[in-house]
Amino acid sequence: MESGLAQLLLEHSPDPLLLLDPDGAISFLNAAAEEFFGYSRTQLLGADSSLILAEASREPFHGVLAGLGASVPRSRQPFAGSGRRADGTELPVEITCSLLPPDAGAGPAARSVALAVRGAGHRPVSASGNGSVGFSGARPGGAAHGAADAGPAGTLHSAAGATADAATHRRRTLAASAAVPAAFAAHDDQLRAGVLRDPLTSLPNGTLFNERLAAALRRPDPVDVLLLNLDDFKNLNDMLGRSSADELLVEVASRLRNCVRPHDTVARLGGDEFVVLLTECLNADAVAKRIAESLYEPLRVGGSLVRPGVSMGLASRTAQTLDGAELLRQADAAMTAAKTGGKNAWLRFRPEMLNTVAAKEDGQAGLRQAVELGQISVHYQPVVSPGSAPWCSSRRSRGGSGTAGWSRPTSSCPWPSRAA
């Protein structure tokens, strides 16, 4: 009974109430929220909370959500911004946010957010602007009496009518001006959704991933990034063909989604490169292992059974982590180390991995300029018969070999160790 009564109170509350999943998707709304925003329940359930906010209010509101945590379970004061209705019109709103306790939903790591919304505008005025319009046609004597009025009362009556006409005109003008944004509002949402999604796999793309990573780093909770790509994908692409290679990428995306929780993010950065964002994860290493095992299982695409190798790098937010770009750079260094170590493996980031990557990049950049700077020199050596004694002057030369050496002024290494 208590559970049923609570559900009844939520549903019939006079204030719009919503519940957001940890990834920002709307998982509950009551009847007042439907009426307030003008959307049906089926339109809002599963949609991102940005749908009911004006463009200028979305990022500030995400900042409020990011500030919620164990020490601050609810917003200290309502968020004041602009909401957006289904017809595209904007209206001032005040939103109070409260973080649900871990045991109030689906598991200890999931933290949903309850929202209470109120309109922040003034109460609508009457058509006449002074509340007296209802009496203009109710005077005794009807129209003849009104027409015979030439005194102050008649003047007041005429003013009330003029004010009502002006208010009606204003309403019609506002309705006409709102027609254009109303017509394009839904289309704008579809365009934004398309821009932020990978067209092949329907996963979030790099732009949306970076937004979610930045929002996650604003919270004090653990943040882990797992960067991965398929080993020798070009060879697979040439062997399978473009269409079958696309099927392979779609299957990889599906397996990645099945390895993480609903509020974690799996994104495709481009080509065969994917990235996973784990938030509030207590054992990221176990997730990396689960992904490696899942992707190692053979899969059939285009009539062929393939088992692609995958190299992965895992990086976790520390007290020294500056931003999302640094975390991605660390994950990339770990993935590069995994490829260098033999591919088809995953490694957790270590600081010395950055030194290896930096040295490799420095060497590649310097080598491209070495010829122009005259730092490449060729040394020739004769090749003699294997059986010739070193003291025999009659030994015959069978040919010669050449070695290109790179002499870098900035390097302390002797020439033999810098042979190219």
Low-confidence runs of at least 5 consecutive residues: 104-109, 122-157, 176-187, 412-420
Provide the number of structural domains.
4
What would you report as the Rg, rounded to the nearest angstrom? 34 Å
CATH topology of the largest domain: Alpha-Beta Plaits
Overview of this protein structure:
- This protein has 420 residues and is an alpha+beta fold.
- It has 4 domains: 2-119, Beta-Lactamase (2-Layer Sandwich), CATH 3.30.450; 133-192, no CATH class; 219-363, Reverse transcriptase/Diguanylate cyclase domain (Alpha-Beta Plaits); 371-418, no CATH class.
- Helices cover 41% and strands 21% of the residues.
- It is built from 12 helices and 14 strands.
- The protein has a 5-stranded antiparallel β-sheet, with helices on one face. The protein has a 5-stranded mixed β-sheet with strand order 7-8-6-11-12, with helices on both faces. Strands 9-10 form a two-stranded antiparallel sheet.
- β3 (79-84) and β4 form a beta hairpin.
- α8 (233-240) crosses α9 (242-259), α9 packs antiparallel against α10 (284-296) and α11 packs across α12.
- The longest helix is centred in the middle third of the chain and has 44 residues, at 152-195.
- The model is unreliable at 104-109, 122-157, 176-187 and 412-420 (pLDDT under 50).
